[in-house]
Each structure stands twice: as structure tokens, then as C-alpha cells.
Write a structure and sequence with these properties.
This protein is 20% helix and 34% strand. A hairpin with a 2-residue loop joins strand 22 and strand 23. The strands form nine sheets. The protein has an eight-stranded parallel barrel, surrounded by four helices. Strands 19, 21, 24, 26, 27 and 29 form a six-stranded mixed beta sheet that branches. Strands 13, 14, 16, 17 and 18 form a five-stranded antiparallel beta sheet that branches. The longest helix is centred in the middle third of the chain and has 21 residues. It is elongated. By secondary structure, it is of the alpha+beta class.
Length: 654
Amino acid sequence: MFPFIFKGFKTSILTCILIITGTFSLIAQPLAVKINNAMGRGITLGNTMEPPNEGDWNNGPVQEYYFDDFKEAGFTSVRIPIRWDGHTSATPPYTVDEDWMNRVEQVVDWGLSRGLCIIINAHNEDWIKLGYGQPENRERFESIWNQVATRFRKKSLKLVFEIIDEPEGLSAEEAEELNSRIIQTIRSENPDRVVLYSGNRKSNSDELLAAYIPRDDYLIGYFHSFDPENFAQLGIGTWGTHDDVDTFEKRFSKISNWSIMNQLPINLGAFGATNQSDYNSRMHLYATYVELCLKYNFSFNVWDDGDEFPVYDRENRQWNEIADIIMNASQQSPTMLNINLEQDSIIRLNWENRSATATELIIERGVGSPVFEPVATLHPDSCSFSETVYETGNHYYYRVVAKEGAETYQSYPVRVAVPHYKRSPYHEKPFEIPCTIEAEDYDVGADGLTYHDSDEGNKSSYYRYEEGVDIEAFWRGYRITDVDAGEWCEYTLKVTTPGQYKVAAFVASAQEGGKIRLKIGNDSTDCEVPQTFDLITQTSICGHFQLDSGLNVLRFEVVEPAPLSIDRFEITASNQGNNPANVSVFSKRDGMVSVLNPDGKKGTVVFSNIRGQVFKNAKIEFTENEFIVPAKEMVLYRIVFHDETKASGKLFVK
């Protein structure tokens, strides 16, 4: 008798005899059903004993401690692919090398002595697959199996024989003949040992279902699945929509119906997806395989080759997250996980719940690796979670665990990359208050760190054209335009003298309804944007902020996206100057200072340095007045209009 040793497989005799529940009759296949249940959740020791010589490929020779680790991890079967060709003479009686036979037996005994089910086969035997029509090849293959059957005839019945792996090259008729011949050969020495057989070619499910079923009472049908091919084998695209899962469900249901009708247990002998494929899709795919195998009572052996399909790091004796899925996936687990990075540091997770009796959900997180720690406990009906993270340049891993009393059902993991951003002022130095900031000179960084734009592309072909912020040229330089709700830009400020400061944003709006937000630190001001009837005529809207000395970040954000443009920001001490709201003075470039006077009032302006030395006295005659003053200096200005209104202040000239 073989006890039930893993979750998800039925064990009672009553359940086994009820065919209508999807299990098998003990009358027809008692031992095969027990062995299949005992095989349960298994692993394949790939790329190890099936090269021309053991250890020729990416893995070294089999070590005994592997089986300790398999057992401790919870696996209940190990499939060991074996190549016999290079260890067997090419002439009658086709003797298998004694050293190789001894080595195979040693590895088999390591597994059996630990209570594991062990599967051995004939793997990578291209000589028989491509040359089956030659009588000497058939005789040689039959001789190999005769010697194997003889050597292992007294081993525990937990040793299972798999006739051949993926007989690509054999026709359906040839595969039928080969299966029948080898089963007969095995039975001469092992009358009741369980044997795995498949269809021809890649041993997929359709080929199994179409294959002739040998007349034998101790059979398990096996199939392999590395589907869909483009994703699982080539790493192209993603996988995991409801339609994707439904396609798998229909295939497994079809296999199950065939299995019940023929009262033949099923083993999924190899499955997986290359590690070159999308991570989140790959984790979902592995979980789906396990869940469906449990649902339909298939035993299974995940493919582990230590290369593109890794599960177990043999040298360091460590398991990856796929092993965790193999051992813990459940139809009660949360599923359809979706993870996104919003803005620069907000991670949002969504999922679907499947447990109707869960008492709580636990969010677990790993930073840099899938080593998880709980970070939040949620109501059992919750289906989303978000948090702000601060460590950049790393992957963040998450999984959702449903608790039902003492039982836990964990989801497969998902991850998202938080890129390593580097923020720096656009002109290499922070804007030193008081100052004028051109809107297009937001900090250097990336979308989500120093700016956010909701669509791709930039209207400008010659100013920061590789970034997403929509910048266009107009009569006085550049401006940000074509904005949408949620878009924002940030600017690094340097405050030398703490105090109250005014931030004036110069904007234009073709219609009513626009709103922007000015934010520095934890303080923010929402400002309605007046209608200026076009995107040329500007007005200023202000916010006031108490700023400490040091570096600060100004964020300009669109709250309501009426057609508007943003030209610049002027930051002055709140008690500095006496500028009418519709008069602005700002530095352009190369010593050019512009006095914007939308009302067209006439007057005079005096420019001086901070020591009071006057270097320009000029007339104001137009709505836009430009003056050349010394560049890269702090300049004081005083404007007197003919209607006796005045404006004064200071700015740093670019």
C-alpha cells in the first residue's frame, strides 16, 4: 500500500471506486491508481543522465543529497531521464556497460531509500526513433529494456518504467508496436510493475488520446506540455488571460474524460516555460498546470534542467519560486494577479479571489528576490492593494495568501521593476529662489520620477524630444501644452533664506474649467485657470508656501484639463516687490530679460545690480518688452507706469 502523501489527491477506497466522480475503478487498475497517487507532485532530473555521458551538459553528475532535498521540499516522485545508447554495445547481444548499469542503480536506490517514487526511461535515444525500421535497432532497444527489467525486477514497486521519451520520428503505428514490444519485454521479469507509455512524436495530449492503448493492467498514460509554443518555448509575448486559462481547462477536461472512459491514470511527465518568457505570465502558467493536475487527479513532474527551465539550484541546494508553486498551488488560491508601477513609486496589485470561506488575506512582499515577508492584512473580499515604495533599482515581488482557519492558500508570485532613477536639475544646478523657471526646464529623470505624461511622443522635434512631455515653440520660446488630467512636472529648488514665498504660474487657457495644482513638500494649492480665450494670452495664478532652507521640489500638476498651456513659474518672497498680477518680469537666455505687460501700459523700467548700480534705464512701450542686461547676475528692477502703478523685484539673469 502507498499512503496518500500530498495535498489534492483522493485516497479513500470509496472515492476510488466511484467512477462518476472522476477517479478510477480499483477493480480495473488498483496498483496503477495507487502508484499514480503516490507519484503526486514530482520533479524531473533533467540534463543530467541523458547527455552522451553523465555531466556532459550544464549539470554535474547526480549527487545523493539531491534526494534529501527533494524529499524535504515535499516532492513525492523524481523522473530521471537516462540515455543508454552510448553505454550499450552496437552488436548482439547489445550488452549495457556494467558500470553504467551500476551507476543507474545507485541513483535509483538513493531515491527509493527515501520513500520517493522513481521513474526511469529511455531518453534522447534518436537512433531508435529515427531508425525504427531497421530490425537490429528494434532488437537492440528491446535488449536494453530486457537488461533493465532484469536488473531492477526486485526493486520496490515505487520504481516506474517509462518506455521512451517523446518518440519523435516514429509513426503512430510504429509507436504502437514499440510500446507493445517493450511492455511484453518488461513483463517477463516484472509482471506487476507500473509502466508509463505515450503516443508518438512529442508525446502531447492529442497524441496520447489518439494512441493505441496496450492491453495491460499496470499502465499510466503520460503526456508532455510546453504550450503555447511561442510563449513557453520561445519566450514570445505573454500568457494568462481568462481565454488562455480556459483553453488549458478544456484540454485537461478532455484528457480527464478520456482517462475515466478508459480507466487509465494520467501523468503529466514534463511541463514548463523558458525563463526567457515574461515572468508574471510564466508564474501564472506553472500555477495553472498544477491546479488543473490536482483538479483532474493527474500526477505530474515539472521539467527542471538547471538551465532555461530551472527549479532547483543543485550546487547551492536552493529552490526557486517555481518549486514553491509546485508544492503550494491550489484552486483555492487567489489568481489572475495583475501588477503595475504607477507614477514613480506606487505599486498597485489586483487579483481575483476563489476561496468562499477565507477569513483574511495577507499581502506578502519580497524586495530583490522572492523571499517574502507579510506587509498587510486585508478583508477576505479585497481584490486590490497598493503601496508606495522607496528603494529603486530593484524588483518588487508580491503574492496574496488566503487564510481559512489553519489552512493557507497562496497565489503564484508576480513582480514589477522599479527602475533606478536619477534626478538632476535640467541646468545642472537647482533653481535658486527667487527665480524664474521655464516650464519646459523640468528636472532630468524619467516618466514617473520627474514628470508624467499620459501619451507617447512629444510635439517638439527639437527640445527634449526624447521625452514624453508635450513641448511646443511659440513667440517667446517654449511652453508645455496639450496637457491632460494627472500629468505633472517637477523642478528642484534651492532655498537659501527660509520664509514665505509666492509661486506664480503663467498660463493661458482657451476656455473655462481648467485647474492646476502647485505643490511643494506636503503643501499644495489648487488654482482655477481663468479663460484667456486663446493659448497665447497669459495670466498668472499663484500659490503661497512656507519654505525651509535647503532643497525643495515644486510639482506642477494638471487637475482639470481644459485646453491650456504653461509658460513659466516665478518664485519670489511673498513680501518682495509689488507686481500687479498681470505684469511679469523673467529672464530668457543670454542676458535677455522680458517684461510682459498684457494691458499694454506705458512706463519706464530701471535695472540695477544688488549694490544699487544702475546699468539700464529704458521705456516700456509694448505688451512684450525685451532688454539686454548682464548675464548670470542677480538683477533688481523697478517699473513705474504712467498710471502710477509700480512693479519691483529681482531675478537671476540666465
